[in-house]
Design goal:
This protein is mostly beta strands. The protein contains 2 helices and 4 strands, in the order ββαββα. The chain has a 4-stranded antiparallel β-sheet, with helices on one face. It starts with a strand and ends with a helix.
Length: about 90
């Protein structure tokens, strides 16, 4: 069982697809870093995983539940921290 998984997640802002069919599986106890250019959708994906934003389509599951994310109900919140650091700060 994955600690967190997303399957087929899409997010549109108007006609612009910020996320396209994202699939991700994070095993329990692992550490994950999302790396990409500005505007690549990293923060959007993390906000969806944390339950702070609705996607246009797709599903998210965790070790204790699964939820179809395109429903317009309040999403369940997962323990998640979003931290932004520049690559220079890590060197």
């Amino acid at each position: 069982m994955s600690a967190v998984a997303v399957d087929g997640v899409w997010k549109f802002y108007g006609d612009f697809p910020a996320l396209r069919d994202v699939r991700l599986e994070v095993p329990p106890g692992s550490c994950l870093a999302l790396i990409g250019r500005n505007g690549a959708g990293k923060t959007t994906l993390l906000r969806i995983v944390a339950g702070q934003e609705f996607p246009s389509a797709g599903s998210r599951s965790s070790a204790d539940h699964q939820r179809h994310l395109a429903r317009r109900r309040a999403p369940a919140r997962l323990p998640c921290t979003c931290a932004h650091r520049s690559a220079a700060a890590l060197a």
